[in-house]
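Problem 12. The chain below contains 65 residues. Write out its predicted structure in token notation.
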Amino acid sequence: MPIYEYRCLECGEKFEKLVRLSAPASEIECSKCGAQKAEKLISNFCARMSSATAAASAAACSTPT
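Solution.
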């Protein structure tokens, strides 16, 4: 089961949820307010490399605020 990131359309809370691929959107419940109105977000991902490029890849993987 993949983990998806969501944003609640009621309170704006961002949260992650482990979701079955076949789960309907109505099953996604906000962890803060309990509303079942959430939008799936596009997640950033990072690939890390070893050796001399480790510092460069760590800097590239930092998420902006």
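Discussion. The chain has a mean pLDDT of 78. Students who got a different answer should revisit the alignment rule from Section 12.3.
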